[in-house]
């Protein structure tokens, strides 16, 4: 199935494959590791790049009933895709947006006393006990009440004006299983949680689910692992890959010795090399930081492709719309103009692609471009 509005694969420079069955399977794997807690799904940033309209029905079909997004606009899209779900907006309550929350039955994640006061005032004016989450910051210093503020929550009269359906905090580095900050955050959150008995609590993200000594609590909030990212970087990835990316070869050419490839001449052919030019670039969200600056044959921490099953390195700077790859090692008759090569897939996992671009797989996923033909596999539809 190709997404509505998506261009045909034959006309696309890149073809993005999304395996919705793997997405559903990953959700079930996370649920089985959640110690009985409800397993929500974080679908912010267009479901980490794969598409809210496709991801949400697949996750709901697997049994997911609670979704988190960053923006109100994303929440409205989730509401269309999952009419009965609980939907939380992580980035807080913006002034004057109460009526939109009420209209679409959405829940703000309140992270300051100002937001709590505004939501309580809105609920009083509406004479409705609307639902919201409260976020307590236990170390990120980004969003949420401080722990001392959290410990005063039980004395705040505003809490009677709305229904607090979740008390949550967020790990700073749960993917580092040995980081002492994890235990410190659990302890700080536990202090606030135990002062507010009866309110469901939520702490773990993807990696947090796999921490050995975390408390179970009532709800877990995985994002990255749903989409195939490894939540346990020091161990084998327990998740299935969800995303594959192919790029089309526009041209194949020979570059003579002592000639350079790409903008600013940052890659030098020491001998005659064969170059494949791919119709994907940084405007498609493939990072320019994956550029290969050096000489042919260098082992560079830079982008890599699989061409007819063989690893072939990037050559030169990634352009806006094109990537150049050294395919000299592939027998000449095995590839031709119009063939596709793999940018994400096989050993080129989203984590590995991120590492080769000096970033994390999260940024690779959420940057997935709008010019790809999107092919969805499996799922309900
Ligand atoms: C993004 C986010 C998550 C999901 O984190 P992953 O590492 O992708 O699993 C959970 N909770 C909050 C508050 C977030 O912002």
Automatic annotation (TrEMBL):
PTM annotation (N6-(pyridoxal phosphate)lysine): residues: 44
Active site residues of this protein: 44, 263
Pfam families given in the database record: Ala_racemase_C (PF00842), Ala_racemase_N (PF01168)
EC primary class: isomerase
EC code(s) of this entry: 5.1.1.1
GO molecular function, one term: alanine racemase activity
Key words of the record: Isomerase, Pyridoxal phosphate
Pathway annotation from the record: Amino-acid biosynthesis; D-alanine biosynthesis; D-alanine from L-alanine: step 1/1
Family, as annotated: Belongs to the alanine racemase family.
HAMAP family named in the record: Ala_racemase (MF_01201)
Protein's recorded name: Alanine racemase
UniProt gene name: alr
């Amino acid at each position: 199935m190709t997404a509505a509005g998506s261009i045909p694969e034959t006309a696309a420079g890149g073809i993005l494959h999304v395996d919705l069955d793997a997405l559903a399977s990953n959700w079930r794997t996370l649920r089985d590791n959640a110690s009985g807690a409800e397993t929500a799904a974080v679908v912010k940033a267009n479901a980490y790049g794969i598409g809210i309209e496709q991801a949400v029905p697949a996750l709901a079909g697997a049994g997911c009933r609670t979704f988190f997004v960053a923006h109100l606009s994303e929440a409205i899209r989730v509401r269309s895709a999952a009419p009965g779900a609980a939907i939380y907006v992580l980035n807080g309550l913006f002034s004057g947006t109460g009526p939109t929350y009420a209209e679409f039955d959405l829940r703000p994640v309140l992270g300051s006393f100002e937001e709590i006061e505004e939501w309580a005032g809105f609920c009083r004016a509406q004479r409705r006990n609307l639902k919201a989450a409260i976020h307590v910051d236990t170390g990120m210093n980004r969003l949420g009440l401080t722990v001392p503020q959290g410990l005063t929550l039980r004395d705040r009269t505003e809490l009677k004006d709305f229904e607090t359906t979740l008390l949550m905090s967020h790990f700073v580095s749960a993917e580092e299983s040995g980081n002492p900050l994890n235990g410190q955050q659990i302890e700080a959150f536990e202090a606030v949680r135990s002062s507010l008995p009866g309110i469901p609590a939520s702490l773990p993200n993807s990696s947090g689910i796999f921490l050995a000594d975390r408390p179970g609590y009532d709800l877990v909030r995985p994002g990255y692992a749903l989409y195939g990212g490894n939540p346990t970087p020091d161990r084998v990835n327990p998740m299935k890959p969800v995303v594959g990316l192919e790029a089309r070869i526009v041209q194949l050419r020979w570059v003579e010795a002592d000639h350079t490839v790409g903008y600013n001449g940052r890659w030098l052919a020491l001998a005659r090399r064969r170059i494949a030019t791919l119709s994907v670039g940084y405007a498609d969200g493939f990072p320019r930081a994956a550029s290969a600056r050096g000489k042919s044959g260098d082992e560079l921490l830079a982008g890599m492709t699989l061409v007819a099953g063989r690893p072939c390195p990037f050559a030169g700077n990634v352009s806006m719309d094109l990537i150049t790859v050294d395919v000299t090692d592939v027998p000449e008759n095995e590839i031709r103009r119009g063939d596709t090569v793999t940018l994400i897939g096989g050993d080129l996992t989203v984590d590995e692609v991120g590492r080769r671009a000096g970033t994390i797989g999260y940024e690779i996923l959420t940057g997935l471009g709008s010019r790809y033909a999107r092919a969805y596999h499996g799922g309900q539809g």
